[in-house]
Amino acid sequence: MRNAVKVGELIATTDNAAAIGEKSQDIVFASDKLTAYLTARVTFLEQLAAGAIPMHIILANFSGDASWTRYVAGIEQVFEEVGLLCPPIAGSSESNMPTLQSGLSITMLGQVHQKIPVQCEKLMWYTYGLPLVGKEVLEQPEDVAQLQPIFHAWREEIVQQVWPVGSQGLQAEFSRLFGHSEVKTSLDIEKSAGPCAVILLGIHPEKEHLAQKLFTRNFEKCQSLKRF
């Protein structure tokens, strides 16, 4: 599993955002709904990477009571995009102390859906989306990997493995997948991908043609591995 923890029979994934939101001292200004959407999006993708679908959601809100409803709306948007009912959302808000900057954390507990395991080396690997961070995510939403086709391809087993790329960049994720290796791609492999703006997708060779019809933008096949 990637950034996931097994808790009994459930899979736990989490992500957070700080100094991003609607408060005057936030570093990046974005609506609370969008901030929660992007945070929940990462957490949802980590569930897919672990072969799970979320069943419960825990929201920790450090921005004050007024942000709760907007954060919930952002979380619900993730599930609307993929055509799933949003699981129950529980949690708490910091209401005793006013904070100067926004902050939230989203944890999802998911149930594993059994899939036939396939070795990474036997899959064809593609990047989907572009590595974007901060304001780039807000300015280039069309270049952020879209949830709907990812989930559809995962559910239909066109994609065997979803592997989100976050702040450490593509090279760090390549190394986690393949050991001390560099995969050739036209993208900047050292740049942060922020809220998983780019995703690595492992596809069975026999289903490449289906994936190429489904992912029509910023979908690039990774070239041969180079050991170092």
Keyphrases for this structure?
228 residues; alpha+beta; 60s Ribosomal Protein L30, Chain: A; 5-stranded mixed beta sheet; 4-stranded antiparallel beta sheet; 28% helix; globular
Shape category: globular
CATH architecture group name of the largest domain: 2-Layer Sandwich
Alpha carbon gyration radius:
18 Å
- First-residue to last-residue Cα separation: 24 Å
Q: If you average the pLDDT, what whole number results?
A: 92
Strand elements, count: 13
Total DSSP helices = 6
**What is the fold named in CATH at topology level of the largest domain?**
60s Ribosomal Protein L30, Chain: A
CATH H-level homologous superfamily name of the largest domain: PurM-like, N-terminal domain
**Topology as a string of helices (H) and strands (E):** EEEEHEHEEEHHEHEEHEE
Structural class: alpha+beta
Poorly predicted tracts of residues: none
User: How many structural domains are formed by the residues?
Assistant: 2
Write out the strand line-up for the largest beta sheet, numbering strands in chain order. 1-2-7-5-6
> How large is the share of residues in beta strands?
25-35%
Please, could you describe this protein's structure?
With 228 residues, the protein is of the alpha+beta class. The chain has two domains: 5-112, 60s Ribosomal Protein L30, Chain: A, CATH 3.30.1330.10; 120-227. It is built from six helices and 13 strands. The chain has helices at 32-49, 68-82, 135-139, 147-155, 169-178, 208-214, and strands at residues 5-7, 10-18, 20-21, 28-29, 52-61, 89-93, 103-112, 124-128, 159-165, 181-183, 198-203, 219-221, 225-227. The strands form four sheets. The protein has a five-stranded mixed β-sheet. A four-stranded antiparallel β-sheet has the order 9-11-8-12. A hairpin with a 2-residue loop joins strand 1 (5-7) and strand 2 (10-18). Helix 1 (32-49) crosses helix 2. It is globular.
